[in-house]
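HOLO CASE FILE
Compound: heme C
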Amino acid sequence: MSENRYERRRYTRFKDISVSERILNTVFLLTIGLGYLAALANMYYTHQGLDGKAGLSMEDVVISYHGSSSQTRLGNAIRGIMEPNLKYKSDKDVILQWIQHGADEPEYNEKIAPILDRDCVLCHTPSVNPSLPDLTHYATVSEVAHAGGATIPTLIRVSHIHLFGIAFILFFIGKIFLLCDINVYVKRVAVVIPFAAMLLDVVSWFITKSTPSFAYVVVYSGALMGLSMGLQILLSIYQMWFYSKEKS
Ligand code: HEC
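Model generated. Tokens follow.
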């Protein structure tokens, strides 16, 4: 009993801090909460509709990070204005399927290069038409056979901003949350969760770039971070103002 009280006394709790400090904590947490809602809205507007349908869907997330295989310049051209240049109509499906499967180099050499060499490169050669996509070799064909998707430099830029910025935010939220009066083991796990979720989120952006199904991990880890952060904020504000432990 007395040992228990000693344990509790060693650490500061909300009841130990001044009203001005509680006010400061509260306005900070509310501002961060509002900032987070704005970040969610921003995310919605930058990603929604990429798949051609209104609203945010898993497909939009895939297109943002991985890119789309249905909206490539090569695919659109071969379905449209460039189709008449094909000697055999059946080659259209060969090319479209190759794009759909990720437009890799071995299959390019085996099936695609012969078609392009025969039907396309007479115009699509830099020496003839420097302004047209160069269809003479894999590297440049690959550029028009892939669409959208985040580039590695972009992902690195966004990751460092996220990791630095959000680490600070989570640290301060966590510091305040530590003043809550709750089970110590719950607390120890709870302060780690948002950090772990943020890391998983950032790592999964990079994985989604090559493996589209990881978009689910992006979404769920992002949601877990928001949720755990939100719970810390709400519980802190609640305990700061509305909670008093009888035995003090
Ligand atoms: C007779 C010359 C000619 C041939 C042959 C030709 N193209 Fe083109 N291609 C063009 C021209 C001109 C444009 C630019 C059209 C425009 O911007 O309106 C173009 C544009 C394109 C584009 C870019 C479209 C965009 O997004 O701006 C792609 C991709 C393309 N062609 C693929 C092909 C493929 C694949 C073949 C072979 C099946 C082919 N072309 C054969 C002349 C040609």
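CASE NOTES: The chain has two domains: 2-65+149-242, 73-145. The first helix runs from residue 2 to 10.
CLOSED: yes
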